[in-house]
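PROTEIN DESIGN WORKSHEET
SECTION A - STRUCTURE
LENGTH: 211
TOKENS:
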């Protein structure tokens, strides 16, 4: 079986393969951890407590490391498609808490206080977004945090010389339109030129299930 035949989309095979493995070395370190601490301090300022959390597309766990410092008692879980990243991630949150594979294959039978996705929806095949939205919704018993590149209308952007690998749109708006019991409780923007805590021009949206 060819590598890309293991997955339903080209984007999955892209991140499960060598490009996804190379991504690891570009996205780690103490400076990123510090920026992530600042980022989640802002994004979750209106959240009282998080006992459980799952991240969709966690890579080696840089976001979860920051969350663990902010919420030391939180039980962390994650989904990761790249085997090299999943191996490192297991050392951070425990192998039993990592689902290694595609988000599309994740069963989403367990619910968590927070379902998080950061810099992942932009790399999902647009035709498959509704499936990811549903899994995020099903995995949350209260909060959903979406952190992505924002654009009011869908656009495709060249990504490190590759086409059809990065897409911008109003992901959170589409979720709010899809699920009537979701409400937006906070949102914000982190700038790549922030002199102290840069992020990659990420717009974040914190949503909560009503009732």
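SECTION B - SEQUENCE
RESIDUE ASSIGNMENT:
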């Amino acid at each position: 079986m060819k590598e890309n035949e293991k997955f339903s989309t080209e984007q999955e095979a892209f991140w499960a393969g060598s490009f996804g493995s190379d991504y690891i070395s570009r996205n780690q370190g103490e400076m990123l951890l510090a920026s992530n601490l600042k980022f989640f301090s802002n994004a979750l300022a209106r959240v009282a407590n998080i006992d459980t959390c799952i991240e969709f597309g966690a890579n080696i766990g840089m976001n979860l490391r920051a969350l663990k410092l902010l919420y030391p008692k939180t039980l962390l879980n994650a989904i990761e498609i790249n085997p090299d990243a999943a191996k490192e991630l297991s050392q951070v949150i425990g192998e039993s808490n990592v689902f290694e594979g595609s988000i599309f294959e994740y069963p989403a039978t367990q619910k968590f206080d927070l379902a998080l996705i950061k810099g992942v929806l932009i790399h999902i095949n647009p035709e498959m977004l509704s499936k990811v939205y549903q899994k995020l919704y099903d995995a949350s018993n209260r909060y959903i945090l979406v952190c992505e590149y924002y654009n009011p209308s869908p656009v495709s952007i060249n990504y490190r010389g590759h086409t059809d690998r990065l897409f911008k749109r109003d992901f959170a708006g589409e979720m709010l339109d899809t699920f009537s019991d979701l409400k937006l409780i906070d949102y914000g923007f982190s700038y790549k030129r922030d002199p102290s805590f840069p992020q990659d021009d990420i717009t974040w949206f914190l949503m909560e299930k009503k009732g």
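SECTION C - NOTES
Residues 115 and 144 are 5 Å apart (CA to CA).
The longest strand covers residues 140-148.
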